[in-house]
Amino acid sequence: MNITVSAPGKVILSGEHAVVYGYPALLSAVNRRLTFSLPLQKTDYPKDIWELEKRVRDIGVKSGIPLGSGMGSSAAYAVAVAAMWLKLQGISTKKKINELAYNIEKKHHGNPSGADNTISTYGGYLWYRKETESLKTFQRLKVPTNTPSFYLINSGKPEETTKEMVDFIGERIKDRSRVIKDIFLQIEKIVRHWAQSLEKDLPFNLIKEMIRDNQRLLVQLGVVSPVAQHMVSEVEKIDGAAKITGAGGRLKGSGMLLVVHQDVEKLKLLVSTKRWDMLAITLGEKGVIIS
Ligand code: PMV
Fold first, then answer.
1. Is 63 within 8 Å of 81 (Cβ atoms)?
2. pLDDT digits (tens, 9 = 90+) for 20-33
3. pLDDT value of position 111
4. Count of CB atoms within 10 A of residue 135's CB?
5. CA angle 181-76-146, nearest 5°?
6. Of ligand 1's atoms, which has the minimum distance to the CA of residue 112?
7. Inter-axis angle of helices 73-88 and 94-109, to 10 degrees?
8. Strands 125-132 and 135-141
9. pLDDT tens column, 215-239
10. From the CB of 245, is ligand 1 less than 6 Å away?
11. What's the pLDDT tens digit per position in 109-136?
């Protein structure tokens, strides 16, 4: 028997970092996936999930999700391993896959919000909120049919891990709790506005303003490096908008920037002049697939 699993990467449209503290986030699965297949004999099943993980590592995964850039590669991996393990136990419900993937993520990263594994499991557009460790609420939202094209521009791999960035905000909250909470509340407003706007067609200018406002708040949080902020300013100068998507980074790169522009040719010209890496993405992609 050969089982194949495939799980998508994601972008956080709005709500990174705030989501760790119980504020909502809006995420979308993207058309970049991680896939692996395992040939399995009934007599040769792995005895536990860690043995399965080891076999997966030996066989190798195919992944179109850039590593450590805020696109949820580690969550997609956790979801795919969880899906494979549960399939071997005869279980294929998304709820179980998501729960197990969250536990794998916790082993690797400490205190994740659970947003990344949830979007990779369910796909589409997702409203997500971690109320408490054991209560996470989320809802799949309507995938808009008429939305601007989204791009990712690589601002460079962050020097810091996601955990280090989350810990950095944890320290800031201890010192400047009111300031940070105020930023989170402003981010929440953007998340709500964006989620409500999905009911209708999303005008370009609305998305542009939400992305710009969110990026300014992320700069205030301190999760954007000077290199990344310089790139964002260059995109804004030609009338586009860009924000980090994910944990960000302070010292070198801040991972992928989520970018929109009404005139793609102008954006492409900037990218080629600056010799940046850019990829076009589609949002609202399918969650985990087992075949
Ligand atoms: O950079 P990523 O894909 O690991 O995203 C992390 C998003 C955070 O909100 C910073 C952390 C989390 O667990 O939600």
1. no
2. 999 999 999 999 99
3. 79
4. 9
5. 75
6. 13
7. 130
8. antiparallel
9. 999 999 999 999 999 999 999 999 9
10. no
11. 777 899 999 999 999 999 999 999 889 9
Q: Tell which one of 10, 13, 16 to mutate to probe ligand 1, the residue whose CB is within 8 A of the most ligand atoms.
A: 16
Which alpha helices (H) appear in 60-175, and where do they start and end? 73-88, 94-109, 115-122, 162-175
Structure-block tokens of residue 181: 């909470």
Q: Indicate whether residue 247 lines ligand 1 (CB < 6 A).
A: yes
**Residues facing residue 125 across a β-bridge:** 28, 141
Please answer whether residues 244 and 257 qualify as being in contact, where contact means their C-beta atoms are separated by less than 8 angstroms: yes
Residue whose CB lies within 8 A of the most ligand 1 atoms, among 10, 11, 12, for a mutation test? 12
Question: Which one, of 275, 283, 258, lies nearest residue 15 by Cα?
Answer: 258
Token readout for 137 is: 């609420």
Locate 203 and state its tokens: 């005008």
**Rounded Cα gap, residues 163 and 112, in angstroms:** 8
Could you read off the pLDDT of 54-96 as tens digits, one per residue? 989 888 999 999 888 889 999 999 999 999 999 999 998 999 9
Distance 194 CA to ligand 1 centre (A): 19
Burial of 204 (0-12, 13-18, 19+ CB in 10 A): middle
